[in-house]
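Lab notebook, bench 4. The sequencing result for the construct came back, and we need a structural model before the next group meeting so we can plan mutations. Quick request posted to the team channel:

Model the 3D structure of this chain.
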Amino acid sequence: MTDPADLSLPEAAAALRAGTLTSHALTMAVLARIAARNPRLHAFTHVAADALEQADRADAMLVAGDPGPLCGLPVAVKDLIDVAGQPASSGSRVLQGRIADTDAPAIARLRAQGAVLIGKVATYEFAMVGPDLTLPDPPARNPWNPAHITGGSSSGSAAAVAGGLVRLAIGTDTGGSIRSPSAYCGSVGLKPSYDRISRAGAFPLSPSLDHTGPLAATVEEAALALDAMTESDWRPASSRLGQSIAGLTIGYAREWFADDPQASEALVRVMDEAASTLSLLGARIRLVTLPAYAPYEAAASIILHAEALDEHRALIRDHAADYGRPTLQCLAFGVALDAED
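Done. Here's the predicted structure in token form:
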């Protein structure tokens, strides 16, 4: 018999609606999975004490009918984003012991639809740099090799999904913190269009660049999560699933990465194979030239470090000794920047 923890979100949702599975049983299975695997991966920093109570409320919603698409399904949340009643330390001693009073808007939408907010997952300190072995929580480990890192600040989110602890986790992305961990760990990471998902209730790194988004086991599950957290009248991402790509034009900026001396031959080969597959499926592949990457990276670095320092000035003044050294060094870059920069 398939372990309920291994069911995809659509499979689990179908079983919940058919009455062959309850959210209570599914949540029990996920809690057992976390207990078994988290000591190796350090993905979760907190497991919700009321997880089963949330599941029971979801089961009642299912019985009442017309639940949301994620009703009864366990979701993990990066410890940068507020979940009412759960720790919200942003992975730092500076905020250690802080408990969120309210849900971030994106999380409130998930809760209203009956999602089970099963716990908080690890982040680099304030989503800046890591891993740092001196912080209160041990760094999350890459499920494919625990000696390796996860690749970015949504570290616990990627490890939890790729390690099979949950099918869906919510993360944040400022300079790659959803996309990089997903690439390193082998999950699907989606950085949505700016402000498609509310950024409120997440400790800001750089408000001009911050995004909230899903890390999921599959594209379909990421699309469902994106729709569930979207606040405005965007076209549902899940409506695009299964559509033919015949006639679609896809720009392929091959030289942008293939000419990079750090690009591996295997990467270039896989990208070419992907473009070929898309062509065979009916898409038109058009080679395009993008501007040089370095000036954009430099501009983003200036924006990020200037805004990050602004967000942390008061905390640094009162709690500098509680910061991890790599984070404090990163924030120090902002001191050299002014409005002209």
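DSSP finds eleven helices and eight strands in the chain.
Will bring this to the meeting.
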